[in-house]
Amino acid sequence: MQTDDFRRRSMGFLELEGEHWACFLVTFQERSGRWKGFFSFRPRGESEDDHSEEIRTADIFMEEAEGEIDRKARGLGRPLLGGLLSSALHTRERNRPDPPELRRWFREILSTNSREVAGEWEEDEDSAENRTLGELRSIYASYRIDQVAHFITLVDPDDFQAAVDTLLEGQSFDFSARDRLQFAMMVVEEIEKRLPLPPFERWAEDYTAHPEAYRSYTHALHRDGRLDG
Length: 229
Known about the structure:
By secondary structure, this protein is of the alpha+beta class. The chain is built from 8 helices and 5 strands. Strands 1, 2, 3, 4 and 5 form a 5-stranded antiparallel β-sheet that branches.
């Protein structure tokens, strides 16, 4: 079916997790004469001619008359439309070749935590020899977190999901659960135990000898998007 056969009607805007989406009801007629319809969502500000980021639901209306689809669609409340948007986003993420939600969520949490632990030390031009013991320990803690985050990027998404399930001993990882951060830390701690990381003394010696190498590595992870590789 050609895109010209689709009829689009604006259903207003929705907000989900701080992002605004334009919502459209899209209808089309089959050869049999029956009408079908679905919702599509486009990020606010995207050109009408650019549909690269647009997502859609499955065909959820099937009626003899187009007007009946329009009536039913406009009778839906915003919470239900928001739920359809959330479902469409989930389907897109699941079908993308990019890392799925679980692995990406871990990486983002670890990257943020790493910067908070050590501060913006990778931007600090002070000599490594001038670091206090406390600063070195903070940078070392950040380094260990980065190693876990980097390791996660190297694991196949499906294998990572299976590993998380194993580490949690069968407990499901629920992103809406209050204790999800506790679950995350359990996983991170178990991964960290299995990585061949140097003890603090050996790391500190290498860091003070090659601070630029560590600074470049950390900058690549947190600024240049290398964690997406």
